[in-house]
Amino acid sequence: MPRKFSKKEIHEFFARLRKMDPEPRTELNYVNPYTLLVAVVLSAQATDKGVNKATGPLFAKVHDPAAMEKLGEAGLTQYIKTIGLFRNKAKNVIALSKALIEQHDGKVPRERAALEALPGVGRKTANVVLNVAFGEPTIAVDTHIFRVSNRTGIAPGKDVRAVEDALEKIVPDEFKLRAHHWLILHGRYTCVARKPHCPTCVVRDLCRFRDKTKEVVTKPRSARASH
User: Fold this and answer.
1) Where are the beta strands (DSSP E) in the chain?
2) For the chain, what are the domain ranges?
3) What's the CA gap between 14 and 149, in Å, rounded?
4) CA 110 to CA 95: how far, in whole Å?
5) pLDDT in tens, 66-92
């Protein structure tokens, strides 16, 4: 079993990621907390680029629950049909919009339980909204964060909730607000699923991954942010 990270190593790990990108931002385009919520729901099993392509025209006309409810499921489908699972997502977006109107005066709640009670909203989506829209130090574990946490050994876990709990315990308070973004960026552009770019990784010497790639990767990290 790989040696656990010390507190000093954990601090150094996040300090280096912060140095690369001091103020990371989500790659999902949105107008307000409501459109962020919709974008995150649509992003499940889809790329941010694909979601943004669909929501650009949508959010130009629809940016509140009332307008979305008026648009209706059929109308929404016409905007998002290029996104995977679009029919089910359209159903959930219309349903959550109605719930926001009926239960929250059309506003996105800031409480986790209220968010997770909305149709199509799980813990990961709630964490993203709490972090990005409301500045809460939550960590939404997606496939990128799950991979980085386990591969590097900084916060291993058998499932996403275990990794989230591990990160909540080990990430220093000064990094928690943006840890979610840094880890996603690292997984999206450096610690990729196949042939990670170990030679150019800023935390290579801290990482516990035994099978580090040795070839030099010349492709720069494109990139700005995460959700």
Assistant:
1) none
2) 33-132
3) 12
4) 19
5) 999 999 999 999 999 999 899 999 999
State pLDDT tens for residues 176-213. 999 999 999 999 999 999 999 999 999 999 999 999 99
Instruction: Please name which of 199, 194, 191, 192 lies closest in space to residue 215, comparing C-alpha atoms.
Output: 199
Alpha carbon separation from 15 to 8, 120, 214 (Å, rounded): 10, 35, 24
Q: How far apart are the first and last CA of the chain?
A: 31
pTM for the complete prediction?
Answer: 0.89
Enumerate the active-site residues. 124, 142
Q: What is the dihedral of CA 39, 163, 7, 19, to 10 degrees?
A: -30
Q: Which residue has the tokens 């307000």?
A: 32
On whether the CB atoms of residues 206 and 152 are closer than 8 A, the answer is: yes
| DSSP symbol at 216 | P
Q: CA dihedral defined by 161, 163, 164, 167, rounded to 10 degrees?
A: 160
CATH topology of domain 33-132: Endonuclease III; domain 1 (1.10.340)
Confidence class for position 218, pLDDT limits 50, 70, 90: low
Query: How is residue 9 written in tokens?
Result: 């190593």
Report in angstroms the alpha-carbon separations of 91 from 71, 156, 165, 226: 12, 35, 31, 26
